[in-house]
Structure formats: structure tokens, C-alpha cells
Amino acid sequence: MDLIRQTNVEEGITTFVESLEGRTLPAFTLPSIDGEETFTFPQGDKHYLFIPYTIADCALCFTEVPFWHELATTFADQLEVVGVVTGSTAEQGAYFAEHRGISIPLVYDEQGVLFDALDLKHSSLTPMKVLVNPQGGVLHLGRTTYNRLDAQAAYMEVVRSLLSSAGGSVIKQAAL
């Protein structure tokens, strides 16, 4: 497995995704949406990390909440799912999350730290999902599945395959 090929996004994003092979997510810390805890990326433990990244008032983005929960539940022993919310106040994010029934950990990225870490400051790649191995290696970066069940099923199978082999290489999968 070498690389995810994004066939449904702009050429610039495709080029960026191709450049991820071997890239490591630098360490950074973000506060939880309620401000009571912090979360450090990457964790450096045995878990892979799935990061759905969205703005707080994006109704379409949050249609994927059941998918996030399914990933967290299905792969609980190997995959941590932590949502990153940006684009409004932490209070708005907390309100929105509460009304969407989100039970995964959520952090607030007021300054766009994750975008900076991925050199995406001037892109429009939101909502997005990021998959990171336990060493911080970025395995996948791409747009959300926009609640497309076929894309979610394909993504689940790719994650299942990755975790069963625990190879940690960048994934090659069409049209995720």
C-alpha cells in the first residue's frame, strides 16, 4: 500500500495528497471543546488516530457523526477517533456537538493549528479526515465522505486492512 489517490478533488489537493508519503504530523496540543482537557497530536501510543476536521456550523459535515462513532466502536482497541472543530467559538462548537449527539472526544482549533501542521493554510479542504499511524505518520488526508455509505464502507475496509496488517504505510485507495 503506497498512497491514497484522491480522484474527486482539485488538482492541487491531489498533488498535496501525493506528497504525504513518509510525512509525519508534528506534535501539537489543542484544548477539548469544553476547555477542561487538552489533547496532544499524535499521541505516540499504540493507537492509530482518525481525525475528522470540520467547522462547527457545517450541518453537512456532521451527517458523518454515525460514521465517526462506528469507526471508534469497531476499532476501539487500535484506533482513537478525535474530532477537531474550527471556524467559530468553542462555545458554538460545544453547542453544535451537543445537539448532534457527538460522543467522541472533540477539541477546538481556534488558530488552525492542524491546517498549519499539514501545510493547508490556504486550501479549502474542509471538512476533511486525516488518518495517522502511532508514530505520527500521515496515512491519509482527504475530504469527508459526505455521508456516502459506499465511501464509508470502503474506508472501513481500508482501515480494517491497515489495522490487521499494522504496517503503517500510506494507503492506496481510489475515490475515498
CATH fold description of one domain: Glutaredoxin
CATH architectural arrangement of one domain: 3-Layer(aba) Sandwich
**CATH class placement of one domain:** Alpha Beta
% residues in beta strands = 15-25%
Sequence of secondary-structure elements = HEEEHEEHEHEEH
What are the low-pLDDT stretches, counting only 5+ consecutive residues below 50? 1-18, 168-176
The coarse silhouette is globular
Helix residue percentage:
25-40%
Mean pLDDT: 76
Number of helices: 5
Task: Name the CATH superfamily classification of one domain.
Answer: Glutaredoxin
Structural class: alpha/beta
How would you describe this structure to a colleague?
The chain has helices at 11-18, 65-74, 90-100, 113-117, 149-165; strands spanning 28-31, 38-41, 48-55, 79-81, 83-86, 106-108, 128-132, 138-143. By secondary structure, the chain is α/β, with parallel strands linked by helices. It has a domain at 44-165: Glutaredoxin, CATH 3.40.30. Strands 3, 4, 5, 6, 7 and 8 form a 6-stranded mixed β-sheet that branches. A two-stranded antiparallel sheet has the order 1-2. Strand 1 and strand 2 (38-41) form a beta hairpin. The chain is globular, with a radius of gyration of 15 Å. 34% of the residues are buried.
